[in-house]
Structure to design on (171 residues):
């Protein structure tokens, strides 16, 4: 009795015509072939999304690195001009540029960086803090001409960080 019910179910699954049989065979062959195509399309979409995110992050790092270089030039220019003209009010340029420099450093710190880039960014912060301490130590009635500040360490640190962005991006 049980064998009879199973044979009736199998008989109900059989195609009733030759074209139905061909269609059933086609589906049996096509479904396993379509599944990898759908999976591949989904993988390509995911890789494209990840690539876009990586390129965007690299663009952000490049933009903030250029900003560091520009602000560093302005900081150095402000200190030199203040020394040459012996005018402490011209140090405002240094302080304004340093604020933007620190904002760029903070923005870079929030991005996903390599361990080497994190170390270089720490060197930049240390060199910046040393220069800031010297400029801030100038008394209000002091003479900027007495400032002996060397920006070389900061320039080298920023240059090393900026050139680290030229390395390959690993996915």
């Amino acid at each position: 009795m049980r064998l009879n019910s199973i044979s009736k179910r199998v008989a109900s699954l059989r195609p009733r015509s030759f074209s139905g049989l061909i269609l059933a065979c086609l589906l049996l062959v096509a479904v396993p072939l379509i599944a990898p195509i759908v999976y591949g399309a989904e993988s390509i979409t995911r890789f494209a999304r990840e690539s876009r995110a990586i390129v965007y992050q690299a663009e952000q790092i490049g933009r903030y690195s250029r900003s560091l270089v520009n602000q560093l030039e302005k900081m150095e220019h402000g200190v030199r001009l203040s020394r040459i003209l012996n005018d402490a009010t011209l140090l405002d340029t240094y302080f304004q540029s340093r604020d933007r420099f620190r904002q760029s450093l903070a923005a870079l710190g929030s991005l996903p960086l390599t361990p080497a880039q994190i170390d270089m960014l720490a060197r930049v912060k240390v060199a910046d803090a040393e220069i800031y301490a010297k400029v801030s130590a100038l008394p209000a009635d002091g003479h900027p001409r007495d400032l002996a500040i060397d920006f070389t360490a900061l320039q080298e640190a920023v240059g090393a960080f900026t050139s680290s962005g030229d390395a390959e991006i690993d996915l």
Remarks:
- The mean pLDDT is 84.
- The first helix runs from residue 2 to 13.
